[in-house]
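Standup notes, structure subgroup. Blocker cleared on the zinc ion input:
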Amino acid sequence: MPEPSFFSSAPVITREEILAARSPRTLHDPWQPQSFFLEEERSREGSVDSVATVFLTNRECPYTCLMCDLWKNTTTFQVPSGAIVAQIRHALAHLPPATHIKLYNSGNFFDTKAVPPEDLPQIASLLSSLKTVIVENHPALCSTGCVDFQKRLGTTQLEVALGLETIHPDVLPRLGKGMTLDDFSGAVEFLHRHNIRTRAFILLRPPFLSEEEGREWAIRSIDYAFSLGVDCCTIIATRGGNGIMELLSEKGWYSPPRLDSLEWVLEQSVPHHSGRVFADTWGLDRISTCPDCLSRRTQRMHRTNCTQSIQPRETCHCQQDAIDIAAIQS
Ligand code: SF4
Ligand SMILES: [Zn+2]
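Run returned:
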């Protein structure tokens, strides 16, 4: 646990400071998704299924969290009616058939300024042949809109991915997410009561934590999410790149987590939970220090994600860090 004095001197960054640190925004076509691809993911039943993952273009999320760089993929204006439907149609037409779909909109699917509510009936009918529709959403926006969309989906299961980020009592408020743990648990309880499934995003080493604290609080946060009954947790290495994280880094308040910490948290969590635990393997070149093993270690984590069993570690000349972790475990 950090000393209280540490957090009494840790800055509380304002929305204005976050916005001022940003680089210029790229303009995006509201009729085109940011990207789409097919990925493999372990299902709750234990099969490895194909998932169509579509990154939608829409208006920026209003929350402006400290660590968030997703605004880069968004517009400053509300996209026209029909644009989200067109983006999904475009992605589905260019992808092989999939069992599930993730519609990630760099924000909140049930933010009426992001995804126009009048598009929801058409979106639901486009997705009716899929088994699961996974969307991301802020706990404060989990209300009747989610329930109505689940009704429209019929037998297709809605799953809402919620950013828990961390349960650290001094870090969570400093992320500016506008969310307490009670808000998170209330949203999960509401969704479950309406037969909507949930998953949680967990940050590994958010700002203000040491490497060791980053690992410890990721594990604690995963435990907390599963105690609420979420279906799965995805561990995300906290990344820089949004401007303010670079300023925090210069002042010593943020360092990216090590790749072996991500491996370790995955290894520690997978055997201890009946729900699935995934490591987010996207963009790990940003935290890797060794080009010789990055690809093999990423593939190993992907195999662990898919099998939910710990795979043998990859060996490499660089892996001094793994010895540190072995010492911590003993
Ligand atoms: S709620 Fe999510 S999308 Fe919105 S700013 Fe925070 S991290 Fe980014
Ligand atoms: Zn290496």
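Discussed briefly. Residues 211-227 form the longest helix (17 residues).
Next: hand off to the docking folks.
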